[in-house]
Amino acid sequence: MNAAPEHLLGQSVAAIDTPALVLDLDAMARNLTHMAAYAQHHGVRLRPHAKMHKCGALAKMQMAAGAVGVCVQKTSEAEALAADGVSDIYISNEVIAPHKLQRVAALARSLQARGGRLAIAVDSAIGVANLAQALGKGVDLIDVFIELDVGQGRCGVAEPEDVLPLAQAIAAHPALRLAGLQAYQGSAQHLRTVAARHAALQVVIARVQQAQQLVSSAGLSLPLVTGAGSGTFGLEASSGVFGELQAGSYLFMDADYARNDPDPSQPSFEHALFIKSQVMSVSAAHVVVDAGHKSHAIDSGLPTVRSMSLHASGCSDEHTTLRPHGPDQPLPELGQTVWLIPGHCDPTVNLHNWMIGVRGGLDQGQVEQVLRVDARGALQ
Amino acid sequence: MNAAPEHLLGQSVAAIDTPALVLDLDAMARNLTHMAAYAQHHGVRLRPHAKMHKCGALAKMQMAAGAVGVCVQKTSEAEALAADGVSDIYISNEVIAPHKLQRVAALARSLQARGGRLAIAVDSAIGVANLAQALGKGVDLIDVFIELDVGQGRCGVAEPEDVLPLAQAIAAHPALRLAGLQAYQGSAQHLRTVAARHAALQVVIARVQQAQQLVSSAGLSLPLVTGAGSGTFGLEASSGVFGELQAGSYLFMDADYARNDPDPSQPSFEHALFIKSQVMSVSAAHVVVDAGHKSHAIDSGLPTVRSMSLHASGCSDEHTTLRPHGPDQPLPELGQTVWLIPGHCDPTVNLHNWMIGVRGGLDQGQVEQVLRVDARGALQ
Predict the structure, then answer these.
(1) pLDDT confidence bin for B1, thresholds 50/70/90
(2) β partners of residue B359
(3) What is the pLDDT at residue B220?
(4) Which residues of chain A have a CB within 8 Å of the CB of B317?
(5) Are residues A175 and A232 in the same domain?
(6) Mean pLDDT (whole number) for A29-42
(7) Residue B357: pLDDT band by 50, 70, 90 thresholds?
């Protein structure tokens, strides 16, 4: 199952076996362009999160369209993308283990030697000390962002006043460059109303400004504030405090983001990521397709169905059960193709070794690209 | 990330990087022995579901301990395990696409040529016809089980009287051998009380008996009834109608099965599958470990925590947030190891390329085996 399905190149969509992860390359290209233009127009840097697609070719495509680099969450993701030629990578997450920080240090030196850059987030004095220890001597070997909890209640220092001691610790180590603040409010991405997202972002902005003031009062600065996801980036971009957007899902757009009320201040994006599935069992009131949650992640809800009046009523490892929206709606037939729109892009892509890129639409198009998920399973 | 972590062999548990999927080999061996003894004592065949571990070495270990073969859900899973030397495989699921049935046919011939056997489930006349077409001429090339919906509302013919026409269709094709009935009630596995599971199984048994009577009245027979999972197999084993148990999770046991009230008629099993994780962020009231739902599936609930008074309060792609059970309970320190017990074995294993087998316990033991997840991502 690990061989590239290159026999599909040039074939029609009908030739794609099920279940398979399929990219609508035309929709993806439009999403790419809209986001690049948006960031440029608003004068903010775009550093898309590559934890979403885990694919070196797509990271390089985003950078060619204007992104300054990419984010990842894991050291091994950074290594996989760097091996594929991506030169500017931010591990927007904490790494604590000294042996793993040795790998971070080696990657930072390697990227710098080829004109690139590695950055990382910290949220503890021990994290700073372990990182400095791993980097050793040298100047400005790695960019360090201090993560502040801005309402998600996950990682990050708890309060704006906790930022200053870390900023001072970073400034004390020549190998570390104090690059700014990591301020990501993940849960705000999925608040359904524009008003709720706006309210959450007011908290984010207030906390960021407070941290900035405390640090600058002490004679240090946080040059860049980085954060934002596909649900709220318009709010961060217009905040006046964020200089960099980390949104990743905009490229593929999942079913869960489509459940948000649209924000007229943000460009809208199309679904570009699909699971091609096949009806494998038919009953009087439901059908079952051959793709379950080993094909598409359900942590953010069940998939929706493209171009058919059907909804998912259940999902198990290898099956999704679909029912009609109304009593008089027809069911698809045994063997028919059903296109699922995954609830959540990031963990869905991570289930697959390959993405099949289709040009010319899902109904009449042809396979143009087979994209490797380079960092699939890169957990460490 | 795809290289085998063989450098770990002989190392202490402390050397395992996080997050990683770790097997307690001693606990697994006890689970293996208890289940084999149970099936033998009750005079039923054991055909464990290999969709759970997707590992040829573990399938062969189960067969060496008395299992007659294994089940899988997907053609590509069957191919992966056959390539690793597993000779008796049942695809306990429907396959509809003619091109995929060609692969099923090739595998059936190949296994038969080496003294093994392939079996498959059907639930439609089209499925039988497509299968017969793919098999072509020859006698008894594949065992065919008719799937009957016994209460799960997923695949399978809807009513016991729907079994007979399929039995007749199978009997009409020399290449197909009518092997019996597939009667799996997946949702019954997770009913919390023994009484609820017992009630669900009464429905299963009544429907199976009805199908058997209708088929035998027509002069045909369903030689074997196969089904059962780790939550209910004691009920199927003592039913008098089931001849084969498909339970798979017993080998690893996940957190969700531990939420069932124990059934005194079944042997109890130990947790043998863990995620080794590390505390990467500490706050006043919670800690965050470096393993999220890209490391452990959460479709059946959040993981539990081994040997610590902590519970998971949230989980995202790469993070799990843990809180103490009570206000005075201590939190682990930054960098400390935390062992998570995944909510659901099957999709958890499918996230990983390797399982690290530890002998001598998770605290003091050593790495004895690195097991490849041969059929990881084998979706088709």
Answers:
(1) very low
(2) B366
(3) 98
(4) 51, 73, 346-347
(5) yes
(6) 97
(7) very high
- The pTM of this model reads 0.97
- A88 and A234 share a domain? yes
Structural domain count, chain A: 2
Contact B281 A156 (CB under 8 A): yes
Structural domain containing residue B52: 26-254
Question: B202 with B328, same domain?
Answer: no
Contacts of B148 in chain A (CB under 8 A): none
Residues 203-242 in A contacting B (C-alpha not used; CB under 8 Å): none
Q: Within A228-340, where are the H helices?
A: 233-237, 255-258
A32-41 LR contacts (CB < 8 Å, sep 24+): A32/A61, A32/A62, A32/A65, A32/A251, A33/A65, A34/A250, A34/A267, A34/A269, A35/A247, A35/A250, A35/A251, A35/A267, A35/A269, A36/A65, A36/A66, A36/A67, A37/A267, A38/A237, A38/A266, A38/A267, A39/A66, A39/A237, A39/A245, A40/A66
Domain membership of residue A142 (yes or no) is yes
Q: Is residue A254 a contact partner of residue A343, using CB atoms and an 8 Å limit?
A: yes
Nearest CB neighbour to A284, from listed B126, B158, B293:
B158
Chain A touched by B301 (CB under 8 Å):
no
Q: Look up the CATH number of the domain holding residue B312.
A: 2.40.37.20
The reported pLDDT for the residue numbered B2 is 65
- B75-126: pLDDT as tens digits: 999 999 999 999 999 999 999 999 999 999 999 999 999 999 999 999 999 9
Residue at a domain's end among A252, A287, A309:
A252
Q: Are residues B288 and B247 in the same domain?
A: no
Which of B204, B221, B254 delimits the end of a domain?
B254
d(CA A133, CA A126): 10
On whether residue B262 sits in a domain, the answer given is: no
Contact B71, B47 (CB under 8 A): yes
